[in-house]
Amino acid sequence: MPYELTEEQRLIRASVREIAEKHFKPKAQEVDRTRRPPVENLKILAQNGFSGVFIPQQYGGPGLGLLDIVLIVEEVARCCANTAILIGCTDGATPRAILHLGTEEQKREYLPRIVRGELPCAWGMSEPNAGSDVGSLQCKAVPDGDSYVINGSKMWCSCAQVSDLFLVLVRFDGISGMKGVGALLVPRGAPGFSIGKHIELLGFRGTGMAELVFDDCRVPRKNLILPAGQMRSLFEVFNSDRIATNPPICIGVAQAAFEAAVDYAKQRVQFGKPIAEQQGIQWKLADMAIDLEAGRALLYRAAARVDAGMPSAVDASITKTFVNEMSRRVTDQAMQIFGTIGLSEELPMQRMVRDVRGMSIGYGTTEIHRNVIAREILEGRYSEI
Ligand SMILES: Cc1cc2nc3c(=O)[nH]c(=O)nc-3n(C[C@H](O)[C@H](O)[C@H](O)COP(=O)(O)OP(=O)(O)OC[C@H]3O[C@@H](n4cnc5c(N)ncnc54)[C@H](O)[C@@H]3O)c2cc1C
């Protein structure tokens, strides 16, 4: 699938780069240090038309494609990875699920507010005893009159502290395994719903990650978005979202680390000359560029294929796996070029290394994505392009 960025896509990339350089980059270290989610950055993106960008015009959005959102997320992540994660609030799994799986009433109620940046959203799937094995989740929803009553908890919910609407995966009463799993939309403030304790990870410290707690939480029946037994359609939404957010964040951060390493190698003098003149350093820079170009080519091609109406699970899994591991190699090499000062909390390099590490685990681990790739090969659905 050939792709070539259009003039409009080059303009999108340039204007997001300008916004991110001016408003997000100067605060990125402070966001990491203070653990404060930079929600004001989401507002800036919304004011400039970069919120809910995939949402069609009939619901107030510009209806942009997946390659457009990839360019936006990459540019934001290059300056502030925490802000790039927050983009999931307006362009990630929950808004996409509302568009593709929601009722007309849900679309009209929520999508225009998402475009205006007024309704940040998050999703809760993981639980203490259910990670990769989604079919084992226990958070339960029981119908009661006009409502569902939810009991249980969710772990690792990114952006929980700043979101107002949650896509919550639940087990419907009495049905075991994946067949019993569906989803409800739960607004902040629903009776019996609370945001639990703040969770701090190695990276992405400014994303407001937290537990979700449901204690006889009651939501109206009209908040049903996915009945039991239809998880395949939600996984299809997740496949697009996997391309839209996780890999461009990795590429954006790796690109920033690469650029910093090039600059540092040119100005750091040892043995009487810049370390950039040492062939050992030059080969590292060359390897980083090879990795970045390969990852970017895979990602843009995967996004262009979705935009051309040819989504593919194997594309999403190959792209995510390669780009996750590529970004770990590139940031690690960049840190090596910096030497000890790269480990210092004064500089962003250590933050970049920390931020990309979790991306091989979130949105499906690289092992689970290798399982998907192998299944597609063995069941005859994979052929080279
Ligand atoms: C940055 C970040 C953001 C996240 N945001 C969210 C969020 O917003 N909402 C949400 O619900 N969750 C979120 N998560 C959680 C994430 O989705 C889970 O961590 C992920 O699904 C893996 O589950 P687990 O950590 O419990 O690992 P486990 O499933 O317990 O796996 C542990 C290890 O075993 C391996 N393994 C498991 N099963 C297999 C198998 N069949 N074959 C081979 N290897 C296997 C895994 O690959 C892994 O190495 C986030 C995680 C991260 C890191």
Please name the fourth-level CATH homologous superfamily of the largest domain. Answer: Butyryl-CoA Dehydrogenase, subunit A, domain 3
Shape: globular
State the CATH architecture of the largest domain.
Answer: Up-down Bundle
CATH topology of the largest domain: Butyryl-CoA Dehydrogenase, subunit A, domain 3
Topology:
Blueprint: H1 7-24, H2 28-34, H3 39-47, H4 66-79, H5 81-86, H6 88-91, H7 93-101, H8 104-115, E1 121-124, E2 140-144, E3 147-157, E4 165-172, E5 181-187, E6 193-198, E7 210-220, E8 224-226, H9 231-244, H10 246-267, E9 269-270, E10 273-274, H11 279-307, H12 313-338, H13 349-357, H14 366-378
Parallel strand pairs: 1-4, 2-4
Antiparallel strand pairs: 2-3, 3-7, 4-5, 5-8, 6-7, 9-10
Helix pairs in contact: 1-4, 4-10, 7-9, 9-12, 10-11, 10-12, 10-13, 11-12, 12-13, 12-14
Give a structural overview.
- By secondary structure, the protein is α+β, with helices and mostly antiparallel strands.
- The chain folds into 3 domains: 113 residues, Butyryl-Coa Dehydrogenase, subunit A, domain 1 (Orthogonal Bundle), CATH 1.10.540; 107 residues, Butyryl-CoA Dehydrogenase, subunit A, domain 2; 134 residues, Butyryl-CoA Dehydrogenase, subunit A, domain 3 (Up-down Bundle).
- The protein is 50% helix and 15% strand.
- It has 14 helices and 10 strands.
- The strands form 2 sheets. Strands 1, 2, 3, 4, 5, 6, 7 and 8 form an 8-stranded mixed beta sheet that branches. The chain has a two-stranded antiparallel sheet with strand order 9-10.
- Strand 9 and strand 10 form a beta hairpin.
- Helix 10 runs antiparallel to helix 13.
- The longest helix is centred in the last third of the chain and has 29 residues.
- The model has no long low-confidence stretch (mean pLDDT 96).
- It binds flavin-adenine dinucleotide (FAD).
- Flavin-adenine dinucleotide (FAD) binds next to strand 1, strand 3 and helix 14.
